[in-house]
Input
Amino acid sequence: MTIDKGRGPGAPEAATAMGVTASDAAPRSSSAPSRMTMFARGARFVRRAPFAVGVTAVLWGIGAATGSLTAGPGRRLVDAAGAGADALAAGHWWAPITSAAFCTGLSTYLVAALVLLTAGTAVERRIGTLRTTAAFVVSQAVGVGLAAAVIGAGAAVGDHWLGHMAAVRMVGPWAGLVGLLTVGAAALAPVGRRRWRLVIFVALITAVLYVGNQASMWALFGGVAGLGIGIVLVSRRRRHVPARSVAEKRVLVALLVAASAAGPLATLLTGVRLGPLAVLDFLMLPSAAEIDDPASLCSVAGSPGAGCGVTNTSFLVDGIGPVLQSLLPALLLLVLADGLRRGRRSAYLATVVVNIGVALLGLALSGRQVADLLSDSPIRQVPAAEVWVTRFAPVLLPLLVVVVVVRQRRLFTIRAPWQVYRQWSLAAGATALLLAGGYVGLGLIVRNQFRPAPTIGMLFADLPARFAPVGYLGYRRLHFLPVGTAAQKLYVWTGPAFWCVVLVLTVAVFWRARSAPETPYRGEVSEILREYGSNGIGYMALWQGNRYVFTPERDTVVAYRVIAGVAVTTGAPIGPDPRGAFDAFVQHCADYGWTPCWFSVPEDFAMLAERLGYGSLVVASDTPIDLASMSFTGKRWQDIRTARNRAKKDGVTTVWSTFPDLPAGLRDQIRTIDRDWLATKRLPEMGFTLGGLAELDDPEVRCLLALGADGRVLAVTSWLPSYRGGRTVGWTLDFMRRGPGAFPGVMEYLIATALSTFRDEGAESASLSGVPLACPPGPAQAPGSAEPVGTVGAVGPVGTVGTQPHATVARIMETMAGVLEPAYGFRSLLAFKSKFGPRLEPLYLCYATAASLPVVANAVLRAYVPHMTPAQTAGVLRLVARSKAPVDG
Output
């Protein structure tokens, strides 16, 4: 233990802790920015997205002026401005553009405005107003023109479906809007770009096959046009485009399964079923509306023609219960698709079973559908192709899904612990028994509310029908129906209640992250760290709570922790093979169904991640100190000199040691300072990359204490070692606390003393450590780029990005920083550390797709504050509200 003499008394000062309340490290300005008026915010929005706002205003203005807002334009307007194969054949060359000036009704006007003001705004902010305008106009013109050409060609060869559309003129900006979406996808990083294009085009093709109207054709070809426009208009440097990962292949299979359910749902939402596969909605979406005369289904045993004596059967068709039960097959497949996306083995097995069941059901029911089709068309001759699709598609398409899923079965290897499946089985079984018993028992109690009154045997025999979709009732005979209110509720809600529970349980199984086995390799990680070194936070890889992934050669390691299904790394890989570590970590996350997140990585690794298709954004600032040029002279160091003079005057001494080697009395004082500080705070201590007492108690971590003239501990700091080649080459600040008897400036004094010591010892480097959720001022750049990609404010906002549409991404991280800033004061901490003249180097968060950012942000927040109680959350929100309140005068 080394004692440095430095004199001075200790005046009281509030305790502080790096990572607990950084705001105490420097005084915060007493004036808060006044709240922006709604008018000013609206004006700023218009300035940032003039195209999106302008087109929305023009669209609604023309609609209002022509009386088209509620029911669309009149026949004469459609004939003059509408587009289609017939219009272009008649020489209306302007029709593709003028058709975008109208919508078909209020709901479509609202949808168009929503797309323009959200996606359109994001694209415009990313690629600029002129390019956005060009993309919209060209996508609309080319998309409508291509659709008209295809429809006209189909009509010419006698295709019934396309021929029906050839003579129809319609309006709508759908080709232009979808074109904007695909142009916007071109601005994403390679992985996100590929995934969003896949989602967009699967949705468009599904809409054409099921809905099959001219609007869906326009949207599809508008997307095709936007695909080409994005390549031309959206400039970016050439980057390596990675091969499809396991996660992307899972998404592709999941989209196929989801499309088989989303197509029938689209016909339900739009009320249009013109596509060649629309006949499948009877199978995937058996609606109660298919029961033309529900009362006719009823037959009394022994007297089939007598009926049930029920005149009002609307309860079979109307209400939430029948609708939920009608949606059951589609909802089940959507849930299974999400499980496939997560790589769950149980989702794979269930998908195979469900689709085989659907195929068998299609085989049993398609004959009746063909008969209904022929009977509904006594005048016209039904095309043979339509008959064949109706007869065989209900069998072949589910089997096609089975074939694809089985061929890709190696993608779905993630199994939850067997206890999870046991809990699911017990819960689902108990729910089924409870509801079945309730139906039979309560049915007997209210049996007089049925016609005819059922026996217990009849109630038992009716149980399977209660759990089947309502539309399937059209294929069987019923023996009784309810007439009383209680009996009707019991009759229509037994099945929906069961399936809602099953769907919730299944979602919970898929969302439950699989736990990787603990990896007690701290000693091996320590050896790699000592040999190859790392940046300032490298030593934090040894802290409790980290797990590890090694490269096959075991010379490079990634430390991470799993939170809410997201694997968040503790800095960059440690070792000589960062690329190999990148691949090993991403594959490890895919094996367990986690979302990978590289957190607090330096610029060189962020550049590597971007080359491999990841996006990046600035989330912190590292603060390395140039020890060789540090002099404590000049105006910038005035506060530091004042603190050193005060310490000398008050007789303050400094003590170097490690926490385990300190005398018991000093250790107890540090614990008391820490405990008293926490007792005065309504908010929990932060963790993750911010150390506490547990991380202080380490023989490799140096502590510097300030002792008053009476021997009391005034303040304490801890310093983490940095290694290279088996020796210590630098130190990083971690833990800071100051006691109630500390004089103002004691932390500046301790840090200046430590830096002087490191310089005298010949250390190569020192760092005041990273400051999370705060960025250096000035223009921010993409990793390795000389071009600013955003601007951060005076000790500024986080969320500056390298390759993604920065407005949306920055807003996510800004929100998280804004929530924590009033409570933890990261920007104030960065301002405090700036007194020592560090270099402000950005640290990055790297992520696979922009769509994963919300869950990634949630995981990072929970990593820093894992034990926040509801009361403490309310405290944070009160601080946020108080910090944003307007200042009077």
